[in-house]
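Hi R.,

Quick one: here's the SET domain-containing protein sequence you asked about.
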Amino acid sequence: VYCEVDFQEDELVMKDQMLVGAQHSSNKLHLLSLMWQIDCLVCSFCFRFIGSIELQIGRKLYLQELGVSATDECGPSNGPGCSSGSSSSQKTRLPRDIIASLMNGDLQLPYSEKFPLPSVVPCLGGCKEAYYCSKSCAEADWDSFHSLLCGGNGSSNNTKAILKFMQHANDTNYIFILAAKVISNTVLRYRKLKAAHVQQLGKHELLLKAWKPVSMGYKKRWWDCIALPEDIDSCDESEFRMQIKDLAFASLQLLKEAIYNDECAPLFSLDIYGHIIGMFELNNLDLVVASPVEDYFLYIDDLPHSQKKEAEKITKSFLDALGEDYAISCEGTAFYPLQSCMNHSCIPNAKAFKREEDKDGQATIIALKPISKGEEITISYIDEELSYEERQESLADYGFRCECPRCLEEEHKGSSSH
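And here's the predicted structure, written out as tokens:
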């Protein structure tokens, strides 16, 4: 990726709209009655926080309450299928009618009007997994992915199979949801191209055209490129990689039961599925959107003493009930087409960075230093504070040896000292 204009230090270079993204499993709660529930209520397409400050707080408290109840039912053991309520049980617990008042809009917190959020728009298919900040985001997500992956009664999908796939992904690795979105997007693009009779192309050519937005990130298979965990001995590497491959196979079989399309059969091969997941392993970018609830409580804390004291008569009990969870951001991973084309450097001239005003899921690239027209834009895939040896070891997972000016200089110094 190269500059077409000059950029100054700290200047916004570009914002890149994600192709696919998903909240991390850390943003989900495992509840017996509801299986998995998203903790952060954000737009499923652009990842902006939605609803209201009251709804965000009330919903988080409601899910905390369900989590404690689920733990009580499971008993003291925190085995598979049970939620850990240790942190929740130490928090102040509010009456359920107060939590309900927050969620249904009957209770307004002081100064919350200074933090307006988009209204909640439900999924077009009626599922309880996807919500949006606008009708346009709901329609865009439906047209791009969700019409094939919706588990709502209003969709024409194989609901049970979709829910089974989603449950498996949430229980094992949420990266499978991203892979399913890529395949769904390609299938839907194929259908649109076919309906439009694009240049009278054959089925194979249409499928390749539909696949094109993903092709730039298509690299190694997941089980070949995933880094070996520190607790796995090198002599067990083959067995580990086979287990990863088997896990991907199990996920793919569930996905095929849910959305298989005969005309797009190549997309549902294990090889392609492995390459798609590998694309996220090598080209993903962290998705982080700061919670407005944190901004709200910080605002209350910064009020003049008399106003703060008055506001805290109402807000303190909610802050105590939330505990450290009040500041939880929406976190996940996403694939950004243009950002994925940016090469690595251990002395990058740009970085992905969320500014105060960046409230959605787009990738924001900021200049770290002046960048001239025609110069390549580089980012760092790793922590550039690491030593030369540690950097090279980390980058080996990406399949290359770095030869940026810094690495060449440090390599030369190292060889000269021997």
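Residues 237-259 form the longest helix (23 residues).

Cheers,
M.
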